[in-house]
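We modelled the chain as a single entity of 207 amino acids. Its sequence is:
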Amino acid sequence: MLVDAVLRTLVHTSDMAHALGLSHRASLLNQLVSWADVIEAHSCSTVHVTDSVLGGVPTRVFQPKGGRKLKRGIIYFHGGGWALGSGRMRSYDRLCRKMAKDLDAVIMSVDYRLVPEVVFPDQYHDALAASRAFLSSQVLEHYSIDPERLYDGLMYARRLQDAGVTVTSDHYEDGFHACMVFAYTPMMSSVGQRSMNNFIRWLDQNL
């Protein structure tokens, strides 16, 4: 599989650099990924995109044009195990752009700090600071977000159930970790597209 081969090559290259004392493996891997996939903020006909700061943490904001006066609000945290990735990567940018358009929602994609710059729980503290700012009346009013229609990526299944939200668990026989970010070109993963569309559909039904 092409994705597997590319990822293994990047990981082995980073491991070699780490062993030679040239760079921390996570730092080099992030540099390689950023060089290939991080893009600048740019708006389109349906979504206004800007880079901002939320609770002192860099954040990319996606605002749908038109639609309802009060928008749904979603704070999104990219994957990578607190060590890899960026909310400015093309794959996450496309996902958040689609969510903003399909859900008529303001999406805030948080760029928390990563290893080796910081160690856990600093990344969690970044996410918490951004979440608190996201829920503040100042931010909700500034972006015209409905305070009754919010989704925080830190809310896991148990917390959603405790809040009275029906939680489903979808299993994909052909699924793999982080498949959603491979939904677009050049990979066009079918399971990635299914998981992404089901995730957005769930948000539409429950948010």
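As a brief sanity check on the tokenised model: The chain has two domains: 1-37, 38-206. The CA atoms of residues 133 and 139 lie 7 Å apart.
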